[in-house]
Amino acid sequence: MDRSHKREFVYAIRDYPLGCGTHFNAAPFYLPPQRSNKNPRNGDVLRLKQEPEFHDHVVAAPRPKGICFKQEPPFRSSYQDRVVAALLKAKGACSKQEAAFRNPDHQHDPREKVLEVLRVFKDVFKQLDRDKQARRGGDLFEATARIDIKTQAVLEKMGKQVNTEKRIGQVPGIQVGDEFQYKTELRLIGLHFKTMCGIDYMKIGDVKLATSIVASKGYGYNDKIDSDVVVYTGEGGNVISRGKITEDQKLVKGNLALANSMTHRSEVRVIRGEESWDRKGKRYVYDGLYLVDKYWLEKEARGTTVYKFKLCRIPGQPPLT
To answer: Which parts of the sequence belong to the YDG domain (predicted)?
Structure first.
């Protein structure tokens, strides 16, 4: 045999595509660095290529291109998903119940859809409240700060909201006298979408029309709410901000929408914000449909000019509570 042509030894590992075999430990297939093996046939010493050290890592065979595999589940679900899963586990929900829990449209009655969203809101809020108190050592005041915003995000990710398109007039499933604790609830049921603004509006053609307002006493606005008449202070001008320079309000955005609603005799939903019974927060009560009767400019005590809108309740609705 010609020793000038030495036979090479090849060490091979059979790689199976993912799903066609099992994961394996690569460590037994690699020899230690610089280890020498003696060829039993010719006595030559083969120096193997140095391989990196492995410490019992589990590796998977590479996926060949052009082959489609079943999508693997994510390694870790989001925090919102874990909250939903915890709620379902606590309720002992089966698969059909879980589908109904995640999809409000399984109910045909608009009223039941709204009530279901509000029930889920309370459940998720309580779960997030417990989690936050545990993280902050049980400080109730700090623990409940802005949990309603996080709850809103969870429900929107679940698709747990109804009446998702803005509209003029009555909203299906909502009745006069309905009470809410947070503005985020108003958004999730389609009653008032702007959680940081008192005037909500939409554009029809080239005209902005108000859809709803949240009228509140105090907070520097001095809204006046009687049985069937509301005098509402317009938005803008930093009239309630402390430490900021106030300025005159302008007839733009929500203020312009309310003025247009007067011109076009367009209905406006009114939500009354007031102090809760226990005086630990606010509550929001839906008072029904109103029409803008007139508006004017008025000078405040601090010298700035604000818009005032008079809204009158449309007759024939259920009495206010």
So the answer is: 169-313
